[in-house]
Write a structure and sequence with these properties.
By secondary structure, this protein is α/β, with parallel strands linked by helices. Bound molecules: thymidine-5'-diphosphate and magnesium ion. InterPro entries: AAA+_ATPase, DNA_repair_RadA, P-loop_NTPase, RecA_ATP-bd, Ribosomal_Su5_D2-typ_SF, Ribsml_uS5_D2-typ_fold_subgr, Rubredoxin_2.
Length: 455
């Protein structure tokens, strides 16, 4: 066999370069190129007779269309993000920073499924069996039938799995520890991670087991990140949250068998990750509703309404170029709101520092938060607190108009449920709830709202 040609693969995004460079052309990351061998993938022997497939017409397929067969964990926050449970014969990637709780959650899921009589195999390349057992004990899962294996070689793992009759779920923790005999690169490189993931995905399709791959998000590109296998798997979940807060958000970013944009919310405690059934209560937990500069945004995450507090601080700046700092929201979007306030509402912020923070370390991605942000900014500038029982949502256009957003009824219902009696929302919102008890104020120009807040 001729020796394969060398190539340089970015460990962050997987872009292949023919020569080494300091910066990756694909993702712009520095120092992430590593020399790898071109011959990746599991080689099939030469001269093996090929089987021919025959295409079938879609219309010729008869029988009822069934939903993908699923295994429900009973952990409802997890089942929600997977779209109703792990799908048999599919591969799911769970990504997140090291230490965020991936192994913890998956051990809890494994224990819950084992209690229902499923065969679960937990393959760990990071911890010894004794360590996993210790964790299971902490999680109250040590009495379950979860089968543990501490292995990192792909061929060994497949041989181990072959001894089990029909595993329902196989967890691989983590893809970065996998290495295969057939790939010549060092463990942790893109080629190794991809080859290992590919082998596990093939195992899932062949045996009908659900396979969960754990992937650490890596900052430095020395080992390959989960991004390089995202396109190979059927579903991708990411764990978010920061060390300063004890709750964690599991977010669907890709799902071939269910909705994306769903979130599951968990709280980390001594006994592992607990479900948070009502995230709004958590995010609004330590609210000081008398302070100027705070507004409550009625947001949506997938099918679920979430209320969060938006905090703004506007103060005269000693600097020539005032500061703008944003946590939990898009800073480009903040600049846009500031420009609209200045151009259409007569709110001058050119000499002011502006700080914006979404409470609890939560991240808002919806443009519907515009109105809540603008209200918080104006409230802070004016030094006047907003009504404590009011929620805000609506998109602001560059012309200063307030535009309707989707899911009006759900947002208002959630607000009502949590004791908010007022809302400010766009005029022309379509699905207004019937017979609601709250006061719903509609606005169509941001300038009108500014006058109302600042007097
Ligand atoms: P872990 O699941 O090991 O993270 P990952 O697999 O994503 O790297 O979680 C480790 C962190 O969680 C660690 O900092 C300790 C904490 N933890 C708890 O607070 N309570 C618990 O019951 C467990 C098992 C872990
Ligand atoms: Mg772990």
């Amino acid at each position: 066999m001729a020796r394969a040609k060398a190539q340089f693969v970015c460990q962050n995004c997987g872009t292949v370069h023919s020569r080494w460079a300091g910066k990756c052309d694909g993702c712009g990351a520095w120092n992430t190129l590593v020399e790898e061998n071109e011959a990746g993938g599991i080689a099939s022997g030469p001269g093996k007779p090929r089987s021919k497939g025959k295409p079938v017409a879609l219309t010729s397929l008869s029988g009822d269309i069934e939903d993908a067969p699923r295994i429900r964990t009973g952990i409802s926050e997890l089942d929600r993000v997977t779209g109703g449970g792990f799908v048999r014969g599919s591969a799911l990637l769970v990504g997140g920073d090291p230490g965020i709780g991936k192994s913890t959650l998956l051990m809890q899921a494994a224990a819950a499924l084992a209690r229902q009589g499923n065969t679960i195999i937990y393959v760990s390349g990071e911890e010894a069996v004794a360590q996993i057992r210790l964790r299971a004990q902490r999680l109250g899962a040590a009495d379950t039938d979860v089968k543990l294996a501490a292995e990192t070689n792909v061929e060994d793992i497949l041989a181990t799995l072959a001894q089990e009759k029909r595993p329902d779920l196989v967890i691989i923790d983590s893809i970065q520890t996998l290495w295969s005999d057939v790939a010549e690169s060092a463990p942790g490189t893109v080629t190794q991670v991809r080859t290992g993931a590919q082998a596990m995905i093939r195992f899932a399709k062949k045996t009908g087991a659900a396979v969960v791959l754990v992937g650490h998000v890596t900052k430095e590109g020395q080992i390959a990140g989960p991004r390089v296998v995202e396109h190979m798997v059927d579903a991708v979940l990411y764990f978010e949250g920061d060390r300063g807060h004890h709750y964690r958000i599991l977010r669907t970013v890709k799902n071939r068998f269910g909705p994306t944009d769903e979130i599951g919310v968990f709280e980390m405690s001594d006994g592992g990750l607990g479900e948070v059934a009502n995230p709004s209560e958590l995010f609004l937990g330590e609210r000081n509703d008398k302070a100027p500069g705070a507004s409550v945004f009625a947001g949506m995450e997938g099918t679920r309404p979430v209320l969060v507090e938006v905090q703004a601080l506007v103060a005269p700046s000693p600097l020539g170029t005032p500061r703008r700092a944003v946590v939990g929201w898009d800073s480009a979007r903040l600049s846009m709101i500031l420009a609209v306030l200045e151009a259409h509402c007569g709110v001058r912020l050119g000499q002011h520092d502006v700080y914006l923070n979404v409470a609890g370390g939560y991240r808002i991605s919806e443009p519907a938060a515009d109105l809540a942000v603008a209200s918080a900014l104006v409230s802070s500038l004016a030094g006047l607190a907003l009504p404590a029982d009011c929620v805000y949502f609506g998109e602001i256009s560059l012309s200063g108009a307030v535009r309707p957003v989707a899911h009006t009824a759900q947002r208002l219902k959630e607000a009502e449920k949590l004791g908010f009696g007022q809302a400010v929302l766009p005029k022309g919102s379509s699905d207004m709830p019937k017979n609601a008890s709250g006061t719903w104020n509609t606005v169509d120009a941001l300038a009108d709202l500014v006058v109302k807040i600042a007097g």
